[in-house]
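Worked Example 4.2. Consider the chain below.
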Amino acid sequence: MASKKEVEEMLKQSIESGNKNSTHIEALWTEIGEKQSKIYDLNWEISELKSENTDLSTKIKECMEKRHSIKRAQYQKDWLEHFNPMKTDN
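Applying the procedure from the previous section yields the following structure tokens:
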């Protein structure tokens, strides 16, 4: 059986260990909170970039359609000038 002094020493070590663990757990929760905040910020940034990407995709499609229309109109004009040279284009 352990003496009173040994029991007191074991109790003291146990309390110190508990305090260290408490401090460590508190630091871990702080770190978890910071990481959750960072995740939230990154998710918001991803959302903004997706929205911007959608806008840019729409503008690219519009530009491509306009370019296609211009090419088609130029082809029609050239064709008409070649096969119907008497027609005047104002």
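The longest helix spans residues 4-83. The two ends are 114 Å apart (CA to CA). Compare this with Example 4.1 before moving on.
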